[in-house]
Amino acid sequence: MKRDDKIFELIEKEHQRQLYGIELIASENFVSEQVMNAMGSCMTNKYAEGLPGKRYYGGCEVVDDSENLAIERLKELFDAEWANVQPHSGAQANMAVLMTVLNPGDKFLGLDLAHGGHLSHGSPVNSSGRLYHPIAYGVKEETGTVDYDMMEELAVEHKPKLIIGGASAYSRDWDYERMRAIADKVGALLMIDMAHPAGLIAAGLLNNPVKHAHIVTSTTHKTLRGPRGGIILIGKDFDNPMGIKTKKGVVRKMSSLLDSAVFPGIQGGPLEHVIASKAVSFFEALQPEYIEYQKQVQKNAGKMAECFIEKGYKIISGGTDNHSMLIDLRTKFPDLTGKKAENTLVLADITINKNMVPFDDRSPFQTSGIRVGTAALTTRGLKEEHMAPVVDLLDEVLSDPDNEATLNSVKERVNNMMKDFPMFAD
Ligand code: PLP
């Protein structure tokens, strides 16, 4: 077979970009060689519609073992009773839950996208906002922290069927206990999307939503450090049928309904190569050194937030409990948009993303903020002492974004710095 030089050249180009740049996108990470190898394996050739032991294709014995390992390891990691590892992405996992617990037009609560929520928690451009009736709660302007009183008031007023917690740009831990109490008070189900902090939760550094929520979803590729994908978990409510009945009037367990929502509800054949790779990443997350890695992610984020604050930047909520922080650029650079910051930093080989800040006066295309995170840099081996130099480099660019000489000089220093840090965790 003729080699596809074009694509392999592009893959190498992307490899070089990742190798020599400073990666601060809070939702990204670098997987280990074994996670990568499992993904690029012959498991991609296998069709396996259904679940382990209940497939619609022959020859699934081996992928059954692999998928079962992924499920068992994942349950152990989060102390869950049940798990589905098939969602192709975090958005698919959320879609499957909404399809299971809501009917079209049903009300649910989710964090406002402009306050750090995710598209799949009720944005009008996502199926969650198009098919159902989302009502948004927000963060408090003074503190930047989730307004649980507002959540409770909205829940009492609207009687939603579901309350969603979790965010894409929120640097504080969540009060899952309070959220469950609010959900119980109004007879709603509680779903927590732990996509961002999942790795820190697995390491026991943040509250575990599986203990409190009816259903938990996540991606596997952010702090968790697995391949791109989604998962769904249930904890103590595993045996709770929650009154959901099939058309024939049979009450089915929530877990069984979720399995059916993933396949055949919204997906076809599972990606068994990705599931094998998820299993490898869960294996890694069960090792003692993973806890050290996550502690370092958290320490680096704390130090980075301190360094930004010292330089006069405003961090929403004043700091971070996890791997990420949301920076309101307006206090230091009133005229600099998040868009301009993102586009300029990338010229110096520093990648971040623009992000709306709560109560932003700019559009989602411009934004007044940027979001940064430390999961990827920590995988490369950077420690607290490297955070000040990284913040200095960002500040140099943002202070003089139109100066080409500054950009070139910072880019050279970024590339030199990253030469000292290997790509893979191991
Ligand atoms: N949920 C949250 C909280 C997220 O931040 C994201 C992605 O950033 C997702 C879900 C969606 O994940 P995916 O991109 O895998 O669909």
Automatic annotation (TrEMBL):
The reaction(s) annotated as catalysed by this protein in its Swiss-Prot or TrEMBL entry are: (6R)-5,10-methylene-5,6,7,8-tetrahydrofolate + glycine + H2O = (6S)-5,6,7,8-tetrahydrofolate + L-serine
What are the protein's GO molecular function terms? glycine hydroxymethyltransferase activity; methyltransferase activity; pyridoxal phosphate binding
Pathway where this protein functions: One-carbon metabolism; tetrahydrofolate interconversion; Amino-acid biosynthesis; glycine biosynthesis; glycine from L-serine: step 1/1
Q: Pinpoint the site Plays an important role in substrate specificity.
A: H221
Q: What is its EC number?
A: 2.1.2.1
Q: Provide the binding site for (6S)-5,6,7,8-tetrahydrofolate.
A: L113, G117, H118, L119, S363, P364, F365
Gene3D superfamilies in the cross-refs: Aspartate Aminotransferase, domain 1, Type I PLP-dependent aspartate aminotransferase-like (Major domain)
What's a single GO BP term from this record? methylation
The question of whether Heme is a record keyword is answered with no
Tell me where in this chain the PTM N6-(pyridoxal phosphate)lysine is found.
Answer: K222
Matching PANTHER family, A to Z? SERINE HYDROXYMETHYLTRANSFERASE, SERINE HYDROXYMETHYLTRANSFERASE 1
Q: Which family does it belong to?
A: Belongs to the SHMT family.
Per the entry, what this protein does is: Catalyzes the reversible interconversion of serine and glycine with tetrahydrofolate (THF) serving as the one-carbon carrier. This reaction serves as the major source of one-carbon groups required for the biosynthesis of purines, thymidylate, methionine, and other important biomolecules. Also exhibits THF-independent aldolase activity toward beta-hydroxyamino acids, producing glycine and aldehydes, via a retro-aldol mechanism.
Q: What HAMAP family does this protein's entry cite?
A: SHMT
Name by which UniProt lists this protein:
Serine hydroxymethyltransferase
Q: What gene codes for this chain? A: glyA
